[in-house]
Design brief:
By secondary structure, the protein is mostly beta strands. Helix content is 5%, strand content 34%. The radius of gyration is 24 Å and the shape is globular. The structure holds fe (ii) ion. Fe (ii) ion (FE2) binds next to loops.
Length: 475
């Protein structure tokens, strides 16, 4: 359990809305709302609003949201109004992101004198600390340490690409967490965080509300959003994509039409929840590739109400509705894109987040696993659970493979043999969930990743068994 239940917290009464306009409340309605709030006041109850990039509005105390304006002369309950801008003010409407937060103290009170602290093994692009030769790379799962470390302390960077200072590129990380954050808070000024649990449930208390995720789900935390991460199962391991560029969005569907892939309604944004807590606390900020800390005497998770379209959310990857071959051949793996963070070049993502979920394979006269491939984009792949069809051996849950810009890859010898001879009946690929962070930037391997003892030195050997099959006399 977290410590929030002992705090003066209020469950929220909220709604997802396409409109910022709220009707005035009648006295009877206010009374009913008050009852709802007090009935759920024993802790921070998770609650969510459906939709992706909606203009949401939510309040944890009745009437906390101003009606018809953002910054009234006096906010109710003595709250401060504050805008959090995720895009420049002048960004086109379709990509303009901001929220209004009504909080106990403005964020200027959540920062004092900062001091630089040890960032551990978290790295930021550009990072060229190791000169590893090119090659296809694979790592086994990294064991959880005995040492007590939080989500932030346990962040281990595997690769970086691009340049965070120019708001381009990404970092690919693994987190190994063995303790919850208590009176410790964090925000990331360098990028948006896409969190992909592989073991252990996370309870992410953000200033926008509470998000709970388990393996199979993801959380998307916009740049600058304060949070603490608690471990519902005591320990947790997973992956994190730190997107330095424009925010992740749903990909266009083109001829697929209005449905399938990731549907907007399955993204869940938390209802408002807050801590009114006055105890010594520490706020960590990742800024410019470095980590800074400042001392506070209260919790910065003090947003009582908010509205806007810049907010964290979660998504259950098992709700992804895949589209694929129903006759022959493969569409490109982009058909499995859950979220895309665009660059300024149309069709060239800063980062794509792609999954390979459970699905039927039915294509006739087709080599069904992923084909052999070289790619300008760089592919960082992880396995959340199960078996990946192109690599039945060696690529295990918690592991990673890296196929960098223009390095060839594809099914190993065993997968090739099996798929070439298989009886092509419809087959359900079950118990499998792999993913890819695919970026336009070559990914540099960190010193930590290059020297890990779970690095598989013999990975490229998996293709050595591929035999010459060519026979000019046998068409
Ligand atoms: Fe590929």
């Amino acid at each position: 359990m977290n410590d929030a239940s002992a705090l003066k917290t209020r469950a929220a009464r909220s709604k997802g809305s396409k409109s910022n306009v709220k009707p005035r409340r009648s006295k009877a309605l206010e009374a009913r709302e008050t009852r709802v709030s007090s009935a759920a006041s024993l802790g921070v109850t998770p609650g969510y609003m459906s939709g992706f990039g909606n203009s949401f509005e939510t309040e944890a105390l009745p009437g906390a949201l101003p009606i018809g304006r953002n910054s009234p002369q006096k906010c109710r309950y003595g709250l401060y109004a504050e805008q959090l801008s995720g895009s420049p003010f002048t960004a086109p409407r379709a990509s303009n992101e901001r929220s209004w937060l009504y909080r106990i103290r403005p964020s200027v009170k959540h920062s004092g004198r900062f001091r630089k602290v040890d960032i551990g093994l978290w790295r930021t692009a550009p990072c060229q600390e190791h000169d590893m030769p090119i090659g296809q790379l694979r790592w086994g799962p990294q064991p959880l340490p005995k040492k007590q470390q939080s989500f932030v302390e346990g962040m281990r960077t595997m690769t970086t690409g691009g340049d965070a200072a120019t708001l381009a590129g990404m970092g690919a990380h693994v987190y190994l967490a063995t303790r919850s954050m208590r009176e410790e808070y964090f925000y990331n000024a360098d990028g948006e965080m896409l969190i992909v649990p592989q073991q252990g449930r996370l309870r992410i208390f953000t200033e926008f509300g509470l998000i709970e995720i388990e393996p199979g789900e993801i959380a998307l935390i916009p740049r600058g959003v304060k949070l603490k991460v608690e471990l519902a199962d005591g320990t947790a391991r997973g992956y994190m994509c730190e997107n330095y560029g424009g925010a992740f969005a749903l990909p266009e569907r083109g001829p697929i039409g209005a449905n399938c892939l990731a549907n907007a309604r399955d993204f869940l944004t938390p209802v408002a929840a807050f801590e009114d807590k006055e105890t010594p606390s520490r706020l960590f900020v990742k800024w410019g590739g470095r980590l800074f800390a400042t001392e506070l005497f209260h919790s910065p998770l003090d947003v009582v109400a908010w509205h806007g379209n810049y907010a964290p959310c979660k998504y259950d990857l098992r709700r992804f509705s895949p589209v694929g071959a129903i006759s022959f051949d493969h569409p490109d793996p982009s058909i499995f894109t859950v979220l895309t963070a665009p660059s300024e070049t149309p069709g060239t993502a800063n980062v794509d987040f792609v999954i390979f979920p459970e699905r039927w394979a039915v294509a006739e006269n087709t080599f069904r696993p992923p084909w052999y491939h070289m790619n300008i984009m760089s592919e960082f792949m992880g396995l959340i659970y199960g078996v990946y069809d192109a690599k039945p051996q060696g690529f295990v849950p918690g592991g990673i493979s890296l196929h960098n810009c223009m390095l060839p890859h594809g099914p190993d010898a065993e997968a090739f043999e099996r798929a070439s001879e298989a009886d092509l009946k419809p087959v359900k690929l079950t118990n499998t969930l792999a993913f890819m962070f695919e970026t336009r930037f070559p990914q540099r391997v960190t010193k930590y990743a290059a020297e890990l003892d779970v690095l598989d030195e013999d990975y490229a050997q998996c293709w050595q068994g591929l035999k010459k099959r060519f026979n000019p006399r046998k068409p």
